[in-house]
Design a protein that fits this description.
Helix content is about 0%, strand content about 50%. It has about 120 residues and is mainly β.
Length: about 120
């Protein structure tokens, strides 16, 4: 089993920034691709960003390209999501996931483990 714990969410004004962290334990973190998804009230969970096991490959949803940056530190077993120029439509619960296959970061069913989520609220 792998445990994932997200942190760093909160309330921020539009145009502001937040940095989410996801700390992993219980498995070899560096073997897994990692992804960030989000879910707003009444909506399905959607892909935000993903990163390969060694950080050499990343992918982003069109809605966050140029504003969000995903990174990882395998020595710290942690993946990050730097969110800049936040908009009210970014308001959601943000989840990190671990995917051993790592073939398609945006493919939700392929993820093996999930964190409990962290709330991000962007006020206008």
């Amino acid at each position: 089993q792998m445990q994932l714990v997200e942190s760093g969410g909160g309330l921020v004004q539009a145009g502001g920034s937040l940095r989410l962290s996801c700390a992993a334990s219980g498995h070899t973190f560096s073997s897994y691709a990692m992804g960030w998804f989000r879910q707003a009230p009444g909506k399905e969970r959607e892909f935000v960003a993903g990163i390969s096991w060694n950080g050499g490959s990343t992918d982003y949803a069109d809605s966050v390209k140029g504003r969000f940056t995903v990174s990882r530190d395998n020595a710290k077993n942690t993946v990050y999501l730097q969110m800049n120029s936040l908009k009210p439509e970014d308001t959601a619960v943000y989840y990190c996931g671990a995917d051993l296959a790592g073939a398609d970061f945006s493919y939700y069913p392929s993820y093996d483990y999930w964190g409990q989520g962290t709330q991000v609220t962007v006020s206008s």
